[in-house]
Amino acid sequence: MTRTLLVAPTGHGVGLTAVCLGLLEGLEQQGVKVGFYKPLAQPGSHGSTVDHSTALVRLTTALDPPDPIPAGRVEQALSRNQLDTLLEDVVAAAEPLLAEHDVLVVEGLVPGSGLVYAGRTNVALANALDADVLLVGSPGTLERDPGVDADPQEVAERLAETIGITARTYRSGEKDRVVGAVVNRLPETGDDAVAVLRGALQRRELALVGAVPLRRELGWPRVSDAVAGLEVEVLHAGDQDRRVKDVIVAAQAVPGILPLLREGVLVLVPADRHEIVLSVCLAAMNGTRFAGLLLTLGLDPDPRVWDLCRAATTTGLPVLRTARNSYETATAVHDMNPEVPVDDAERARLVMHTVADALDAAWLTSLPTADHVPRMSPPAFRRRLVAAAREGGARIVLPEGTEPRTVSAAIRCHELGIARCVLLGAPSEVAAQAEGLGLTLPTSLEVVDPTEVVERYVEPLVAARSRKGLTPDAARDLLADPITVGTMMLHLDEVDGMVAGAAHTTAATIRPPLQVIGTAPGVSLVSSVFFMCLPDEVVLYGDCAINPDPDAEQLAEIALQSAESARTFGIEPRVAMISFSTGTSGSGEDVVKVTEATAAVRRRAPDLLVDGPLQYDAATTGSVARSKAPDSQVAGRANVFVFPDLNTGNTTYKAVQRSASVVSIGPMLQGLGKPVNDLSRGATVEDIVYTIAITAIQAAAARDARA
């Protein structure tokens, strides 16, 4: 039976949609099949053809919720006292969703100017859908005297009272629909602050199930949002995905303004303040990644000054112009719509993850009914990665320690407790990168200058490659490469794993580990897998990165390595050996190779579920499997796919990743003596974080195996 949860606000501006997104993520992390439905469009969105909340859910999840009943029709029905008719349509639209999901998250209406019926309509929705109610409140909705710092106890009591008043509207007779409250945008989320708030709610018989911190970065718009929301002219587009983290009005002379010129700042200045314009452009050319330069008063920049500034535009610096004065422009930026735009996936996912992390995991687990069967959804897999990595406490070296994405990922890993990272790079360069990104290096994050430790590894490297006759001078040359330094740290057990490749090719990344560490005992080759996060489950693709044309025995080895990798990450493997034909329907050398490889896997691992040759559709689709391989235990439900060669594997993974907007994690290397993983040079910060987590889990598994 499906559990329905109505998410209802206690006032305007509490972040209702943000909490809904976090709920979807949190339940997915628990392996719950969760759906979303916003029954009634929010009034004020008459000019939009797409509901904002529904669009964000489609952007950030694999769900495709139905469109809500339009706001105009809602207002018309209520003005004619036709609420019951409206609710019949709501229930009818909800029925297919209730049949498909374990939990259905329903977003209520938010009260606003003239929207006097929001409260009673939400109560009617809860009754019509027989929904439990989760209330959402925020300290930002409380009225207080400006300039007076409120006592935390007083704020907690007033907030709890506001939530309690709303809760009473859902408590009729013996039925109490309220199952908890989430407090959003809480300035203080320390143990003491949360305990005070929890106590205030408990005195009103309400459970605090989430205390979401107030994070400034959740409100950072892109430059493109400022262009869309303000009356500005684009003089140079630059990188309009940059985030506006702060706004400064450049009124001081150059010495006074210099300390304010930081990463993410949108600089507002009249175009005739040439010294400020030149200073900003010079700072941009020296690596400061401003959000943009916004010229006010509608003035044209002096052509001679503009010529000097053109080099700054090549760094991606957006240059805008407005007819307003600087004060009016700063006010307009401050008053921009705070909602996450429906095309800003990065910010929407950050909101989603922040809320999900703040929700009580035990409470989330209690939401599905007793007949719920957990599944390995992509969020559940990512959550398992983080949790398992935290338990391992691995020390991971990152040779590309001055690369911006790598620095960001290392800081994130320390914040989440995923691993103890070691960045290789000159400390001054690493610090400069962090400062340029607007980040603070944790004191626990170790930075090692690889040029200062070369001599420590010369003798061990010579010993490791004695068969090749490596000389000390040649070893020093090799150790000029930070990846070789990282490899030696791993070889000598100073670290548990290594991650590189954001700025190096796959060959450059894995050559030193192959030369120094080699393959694991009993393993004949190194291969790779990608974890493909499909909408409903996570599957493995191998080998898509290393071996161009493996023979039958090598293909069998790849299959066995991939199956073991699946088990390491909590996925019980069902291995499909992919070919262009299924069973005996085709012929030729390629089919024979896959047939022989399948037989070899069965000989070496008789308990492993494996079948082949299988076409991809026969491996994935039940209806095709029943026709082409009716007796197979793998066909139609495979979760480990072994491709016959690199051409097929790499093409398939990229086609699925790009065409279906599937998140892929990897490649994860298999078969090396110690954990080393290669990054795509197009890897995002999130990709690097999860690759570090994977490496940490591999390291823990290797320690367990040795024990």
Topology (SSEs and partners):
Layout: E1 3-9, H1 16-29, E2 34-37, H2 52-60, H3 71-79, H4 83-100, E3 103-107, H5 118-128, E4 132-137, H6 152-168, E5 171-172, E6 175-176, E7 178-186, H7 191-202, E8 208-213, H8 223-229, E9 233-236, E10 246-249, H9 254-257, E11 265-270, H10 274-285, E12 292-296, H11 303-313, E13 319-321, H12 326-334, H13 345-358, H14 361-366, H15 378-392, E14 395-398, H16 404-416, E15 420-424, H17 427-436, E16 446-448, H18 454-464, H19 472-478, H20 482-491, E17 497-500, H21 506-516, E18 527-533, E19 538-542, H22 552-568, E20 574-578, H23 589-604, E21 609-614, H24 616-620, H25 622-628, E22 640-642, H26 646-659, E23 663-670, E24 676-678, H27 685-706
Parallel strand pairs: 1-3, 1-4, 2-3, 4-7, 7-8, 10-11, 11-12, 12-13, 14-15, 14-17, 15-16, 17-24, 19-22, 20-21, 20-22
Antiparallel strand pairs: 5-6, 9-13, 18-19, 18-23
Textual characterization of the structure:
- With about 700 residues, this protein is an alpha/beta fold.
- The chain folds into four domains: about 5-220 and about 345-365, 3-Layer(aba) Sandwich (Rossmann fold); about 220-335, HprK N-terminal domain-like (Udp-n-acetylmuramoylalanyl-d-glutamate--2,6- Diaminopimelate Ligase, Chain: A, domain 1); about 395-515, Rossmann fold; about 525-670, 3-Layer(aba) Sandwich (Rossmann fold), CATH 3.40.50.10750.
- Helix content is about 45%, strand content about 15%.
- It is built from 27 helices and 24 strands.
- The strands form five sheets. A six-stranded parallel beta sheet has the order 2-3-1-4-7-8, with helices on both faces.
- Strand 15, helix 17 and strand 16 form a beta-alpha-beta unit.
- Helix 1 (about 15-30) packs across helix 13 (about 345-360) and helix 16 packs across helix 27 (about 685-705).
- The longest helix has 22 residues, at about 685-705.
- It is globular and about 80 Å long.
- The relative contact order is 0.08.
- The model has no long low-confidence stretch (mean pLDDT about 90).
